[in-house]
Amino acid sequence: MEKTEKVTMEKIQSLAKQRGFIYPSSEIYGGFANTWDFGPLGIELKNNIKKLWWQHFVQERMDMVGLDSAIILNPKVWEASGHVGGFADALVDCLNCKLRFRADHLVEDTTGEDVEGKSLEEISRIIQKDKIACPNCKSINWTDARSFGLMFKTYIGVVEDTKSAAYLRPETAQGIFVNFKNVLASTRKRIPFGIGQIGKAFRNEVTPGNFVFRTREFEQMEIEYFINPKDWEKSFEFWLKEMQRFAKAIGLKDEDIYLHEIPAEKRAHYSKRTIDVEFKYPFGTKELWGLAYRTDYDLSHHEKASGEDIVYVDPVTNQKFIPHVIEPTFGVERTMLVALLSAYEEEEIGSGDKIEIRTVLKLPKELAPYKIAILPLSKNEDLISKAKEVFDLLKTSYMCDYDETQSIGKRYRRQDEIGTPYCVTIDFNTLKDNAVTVRDRDTMKQDRVGIGSLKEYLGEKFC
Ligand code: ATP
């Protein structure tokens, strides 16, 4: 089997739509810019990513617990965290064609200069000095860079006034910080321990794009790991390794990952050290996940703003301190995108004039939307009824697909394309010997297995 061409965004996007992973949202109304819906396979893949993450970072750890906090929190949370007013991007408008751009992206894409951390005035000056042209109409006629708040505002109740204004959360982290005391009081956890949360976050991104890489609505999987400040370096290194372990588990290749140490002047205001885990996407090397040492910035600010005492007393040493925090954060959709990009392969199979290209998603088994496809060789009634028996036998243990249309060869190709690790074929011999053919996605090897021992056979394959 020879590997052929490289994966592109077009190939992934087309496969995702055709096979039911990701559709453009509200498509019958002409779509809705940069908004995506997850189809029957997309929801399985997404759930499997979240399940695997939870298993790695919560279930398998004695020092972690979970949480599911509200999306619309008390607006005071966002004032204390610095998001109201502070969580913004620099924007410029082209006065000629009226299109709007993120100023930092504009500079970076044209000159390669990274302007993170620079003031609005400085960015405007760079745009002028370098005579950066509008990517759309090529004119050089910009407004000054100005700040654009990224939080979605909404109103609670019937009156739209400043008192009733609230926000859709732009990160899940703050829901964890405001529950720190509750979790400490209601569990027997002591520092160091962490809280994990998976949930939706919303950002009014100015220039979303690159498929599901940057959207306005997305899911995050976040950990806030509470520590004694003296342990921050050790803990930071530990969580970096854990993130790398998770990257392996979802099938990412070492050579596609780049650890980007963010220099002090470019870090978020709350961070004393940040490493972006970047991925070599077809459109460039960009952030996949982040790891930050958030110090005690958030808990201290919430303590001040709420008046609640958040001081932790070490039960052994009696030392009193506000816990510091290491934050590993992961975007679900970006994880989904890199899992698809990493799994996609086109292989040349056959020989002589019978060479064909098979597309196969070599997803780790835990992530595969369907674990097993059950395929009666033809629409013969006896085969169908036997195939349904096999479906019933396996359905409680595995997410199974059932397909009786088209030739068996075409059905195998279809299952390869959606990453199903095993196909179970019921043929006319099955009616005589009560055995089925199990085909392996990656090797395409086939085994004949008695239905009586099928569960055990598959159990070994999936363990
Ligand atoms: P970027 O620099 O790409 O805007 P960020 O540094 O603002 O990302 P964080 O605030 O660290 O991102 O968010 C944590 C994670 O959430 C990111 O590592 C990424 O996986 C995901 N994420 C952030 N913004 C988006 C978005 N607009 N669409 C999809 N995923 C996102």
From TrEMBL:
Keywords (A to Z) from UniProt: Aminoacyl-tRNA synthetase, ATP-binding, Cytoplasm, Ligase, Nucleotide-binding, Protein biosynthesis
Main function: Catalyzes the attachment of glycine to tRNA(Gly).
Compartments, as annotated in UniProt: Cytoplasm
Domain of life of the organism encoding this protein: Bacteria
Protein name as catalogued: Glycine--tRNA ligase
InterPro entries tied to this protein: aa-tRNA-synt_IIb (IPR002314), aa-tRNA-synth_II (IPR006195), aa-tRNA-synth_II/BPL/LPL (IPR045864), Anticodon-bd (IPR004154), Anticodon-bd_dom_sf (IPR036621), Gly-tRNA_synthase/POLG2 (IPR027031), Gly_tRNA_ligase_bac (IPR022961), GlyRS-like_core (IPR033731)
Listed transmembrane segments: none
Native organism: candidate division CPR2 bacterium GW2011_GWC1_41_48
Upper lineage: Bacteria, Bacteria division CPR2
HAMAP family, per the entry: Gly_tRNA_synth_B
Binding-site positions, substrate: R102, E171, F218, E219, Q220, M221, E222, E327, P328, T329, F330, G331
The gene coding this protein: glyQS
Self-association state and partner proteins as the record states: Homodimer.
Family stated for the protein in its record: Belongs to the class-II aminoacyl-tRNA synthetase family.
